[in-house]
């Protein structure tokens, strides 16, 4: 948890009562970016707040922003009370006022991962852990009382391996040691409060007793060092300094949000630098916040009630007239469209996946892109639309997609722009390939991207809020099926109209010859992405430390980590000097029993004794096929196309720079799509001078089956599941199931 004084906050003073405030009045605050929250002050008292991201949405259009007067405050600085409010409300920022209602500061909620990241940075920039540890003969480790037992064991093992003396204390014993200038590591069941808060609470108790004030310098020293010794940050630092860190990655910061959106942000930020205007079309998730308007609440409630009465299914995602007579006429222009064969192909054999063409009465695609109607023969610029179903236009025929309606509106206003529909239900997964296909952009061009994480915010790229468009026009819920983003032709007309209004200031009516080309090298940008996302975090020293050593790669999902996975890692590790183990990070199109963070932790804990492996998140670069939009790829040809795409990308950006010469796969994987992926690997990798080595199953052991483990866990048949697990995974699962 971090406390900021009023001097660090963004403050806007007003004189009169107001419901809204102009973006112009907030422009300077926006440029300074001093806080995520702008505090509105009237007569020295806190009047309201505005989130900076709301300003980012509207700053370029000088619109009014509603002042939020419904928010939670803390009266007086009280860490314990602040933490309780955070826990109860689930909020990110907490303004602090005095008894007069005057703003005096702000608390920020630091969840465990952010707190670790901050402490790690402090360790790097300040005295290293070695220096700190030299001040003490013994490290006092505060034993957890509930759900941190497995990590506690890992910590103790690390201290032993590093030759660091330690003594285990219980919470009640802290008081006797705290004034001895001792160094503590807290492994607490209530970590979210943060070690810093625990220390400050203890200090505040002792500060009240005068005879302790004589020892003030010692207290300050102890407080400073204790800030640097949360168990995870110290553990990471110890491992770095003992050269264990490069062999075994304990990931200090899990990457939330979709990896393909991270890549998109790099691409579009680069375009912005070169003068191409980019926008991010988002759908904010306002559930559970005080920003949910009366309109949105009613809108969502109507959809929920309708879906109870007329549920949608994967086989028939858009209802027919006899399934939903109450809103059919509003939703579709005609029933023929949803029964047309070409439209049905969107949900399985869609032409947009293999760059083929399809011809129909209502749905047409050329070279893998849905056609945009009304395109001009010549153009001064292009508007590119990237996104999933809402951009592709799954509910409407060709002439009523957002792209076609936007194109028609442009022609009517005499703007010679061509709109290109790059919508695809799996659109972002080949974003680099799509951008490479475009080749060159012009400074007149405009790019609009709808992220896979619908609420994703991109830095320095203006946002267009789908929710706000719906609310501004009071679009009825009968114009959508199940959410804001699955809308009919009527809603598309409204959305396209607002998009044109937003981008119009950037449109040119110049001549065709005025095109200014910009250089845009997809390969170079991908290299920057790899450096940012992978090299700088994981591989910076690999090529220096392991010169001349053979290197291999193995990809697993480990859902959960079991005996079979352990065996595969051992076998692969015996065939190379250095093995890089990629744990699949993208849960998007798979039904994972355990989320990535838990799977990653299981693998780390279950392989601590293996010294020649490095464990990293796969991101977009795995060799398992788990990043496939599997529910959309139904044919062997498409599996082959996607496999070839992923394998080539892995080789170009990861394997060659890391000098990986062997990739390991399981000989008889459980999943059919993984078998097909492996066959493509065996075909392609040897052409790239990389061996593809199959590892047979555990001899005389058919008990370890991940699918069976998952079934047993879902049925709460724990004993059967635990038989197939390594001991560390068993302990993790017992904790998660509340069995310990």
Automatic annotation (TrEMBL):
UniProt keyword ATP-binding present: yes
One matching Pfam family: Citrate_ly_lig
Signal peptide stretch: none
Keywords: ATP-binding, Nucleotide-binding
Alphabetical list of SUPFAM superfamilies matching this protein: CBS-domain pair, Nucleotidylyl transferase
Residue ranges occupied by any Citrate lyase ligase C-terminal domain in the UniProt entry: 551-733
Gene3D superfamilies in the record: CBS-domain, HUPs
Keyword Cell membrane: no
InterPro entries: CBS_dom_sf (IPR046342), Citrate_lyase_ligase (IPR005216), Citrate_lyase_ligase_C (IPR013166), Rossmann-like_a/b/a_fold (IPR014729)
A GO term, aspect molecular function: [citrate (pro-3S)-lyase] ligase activity
PANTHER family, sorted: [CITRATE [PRO-3S]-LYASE] LIGASE (PTHR40599:SF1)
Protein name: Citrate lyase ligase C-terminal domain-containing protein
